[in-house]
Amino acid sequence: MMSSAPAATGPRPGEPDRTGRAPLREFLRHAVVLTTVAATLSGCAVANSDSTGDAGAADGATLRVVLTQEPPTLEPCESSLTSTGVVVRSNISEPLIERDPTSGALRPLLSTGWRQSSPTTWTFTTRPGVRFHDGRPFTAEDAAFSIDRAVNSDLACNVDGYVFEGRDLSVRADDANSLTITTAEPDPILPLRLSFVEIVPRGTSTEAKVREPVGTGPYSIADWQTGVSISLHRNDDYWGPRPAFPAARYVWRGESSVRAAMITKGEADIATGLDPEDADQDDSVAYPNNETTALRLDGREAPLDDIRVRTAIGLAIDRQGITDALLDGLAQPAAQLVPEGVVGFNPAMTAPPPDPETARRLVAEAAADGVPVDRPITLIARNAQFPRVSETAEALQYQLNQVGLRVRIQMADTAEHLQYQLRPMPVDAGPVALLIMHGNQAGDAAFTTSQYLISDGPQSNFGTPELDERIARADGLSGQARQDAFAAIFAVERDAVAQYAYLAHMRGLLGIAKTVRYAPNSATGDELRLAAVTPADGQVR
After folding, report:
1. Fewest CB atoms less than 10 Å from the CB: which of 51, 288, 323, 469?
2. What angle do CA 458, 294, 500 make, to 5 degrees?
3. Which pLDDT does position 13 carry in this prediction?
4. What is the helix, strand, coil percentage profile of the chain, to 5?
5. Does 40 or 249 have the greater pLDDT score?
6. Other C-beta atoms within 10 Å of 503: how many?
7. Nearest to 323 by CA among 505, 512, 529
8. Rounded to the nearest 5 degrees, what angle is found at the Cα of 416, between the Cα atoms of 414 and 465?
9. Which three-class secondary structure state does DSSP give residue 520?
10. Rounded CA gap, 391 and 412, in Å?
11. Quick one: which of 186, 189, 98 has its CA closest to 482?
12. CA 136, CA 116: separation in Å to the nearest integer?
């Protein structure tokens, strides 16, 4: 769908004042009215529909979860993908180490301890007495095999590219309960990276990704009916605390209103990814989901190749107005690509108020120097990227047009959006402002900078040698020095490079029925731990 702003016809009600906020308020009020009407009509349709289906027997013994989509795979080495991890991670399979999503501390899981014996050598001890779902004992040899399979094989696992960034590791089991990992270069956050490697038994295919994996987790796969449901049953030989529910069943529904209705009608216990207009206050809870939205500006194409224009875009955005009116307060205005809690977050950087007057001046200066500021910029957003994404795109278009730029909207499906998001990106696409949503679930800025800020990053379309060098130096540091270095990088990126115009740190909405108890955290969107869900009466089934 393409959209463009109406041509200016002279003074009229809502004409921009010096701050530019009065017309934006009118624009947002109009957008919210239209959205509310549409949501009301949609809600009425759902209320009279019997097409939602059954999410599993309401016997109290089966935990019923409704997802936004069917996982494309349950392969453990792909569990850093949200749609896979929400089912697999720490439910079916487990890593050696887990990260506390609140404190960021690393805790033992299948490993009981680790130490760094040299800048490039780490030793890990493994937990005795653990068995896989098929009864085989877990040993350090399985851990070494799993790491080698995920990082050094030709499987092209997502964890290899995203978490390990193509780094080679040398892994060996020293005995049944210890393994040694050697890196080519010092890697101070290797234990954190390993928290994304799910352990599978030796003999798991290294030539093809598996459909129904065997793990050590509190649940194992009972049945996967493609397009219908995934059923798990409790692993009664689990080495850790016994989960409360004997079974779990996942279904998926694309419409938020349908997922919400399944909670209120007693057809599901937990529903992910609810839109604010669909959520019942008594049956939902908001939580920080580590996602940050921003416009990625293609600095290779005029007029976006001029830093004055990129800076003007950041100044034109009324972040508070958008988060309040369109995102229902379930977001906070952002000034950087990572939220609080991630190593490298810069607390001194705060989202500025809109300054359309300065933005217009910068655009005018660029135009006076021959920059083609009237060249149309395509703002590309993904359908269902987040609630009210199309209205958010329209608000951004309106604000950028008000400072002298020409912006048109292109709403894309997931496949088309990924073509613009990942290398190799389309050629001859012209200037593109891509609305992205980045989630740093690992808790360290290196996972953001290596993807989005370095010049040749998988999700970056330009950068500078100076910024690349800063990032490389920071990646070799640890402790407070690492925090300070990455915090400085985010400030330099904003002031001297302006690859992004930041919008908001997002919050998710989880539907929770009154029959269960669960406290979501910042990792919930990526790994919904079934063992953390209990019946409302507190009884283990």
Report:
1. 51
2. 70
3. 31
4. 30, 25, 45
5. 249
6. 25
7. 505
8. 100
9. coil
10. 14
11. 189
12. 29
333: amino acid identity, one letter: P
**Percent share of the chain, pLDDT over 90:** 79
What does the DSSP 8-state code read for residue 220?
E
The answer to whether 341 touches 104, Cβ cutoff 8 Å, is yes
Give the whole-angstrom CA distance, residue 435 versus residue 503. 9
* Residue 240 buriedness (CB in 10 A; 0-12 / 13-18 / 19+): middle
> 33, 21, 16, 19: which is closest to 321 by C-alpha?
21
Q: Can you give the C-alpha Rg of the chain in angstroms?
A: 24
Residues 83, 250: contact at Cβ < 8 Å? no
Determine the number of helices (DSSP H) and then strands (DSSP E) in the chain. Answer: 14, 20
The predicted model scores a pTM of 0.83
pLDDT at 276: 87
Nearest CA-CA partner of 295 in 179, 401, 392, 188: 392
How many residues make up the chain in this entry? Answer: 541
Of 332, 257, 376, 287, residue with least CA distance to 5: 376
Chain mean pLDDT for the chain: 90
**CA 223 to CA 219: how far, in whole Å?**
12
| Residue in the block written with tokens 């004042």 | 17
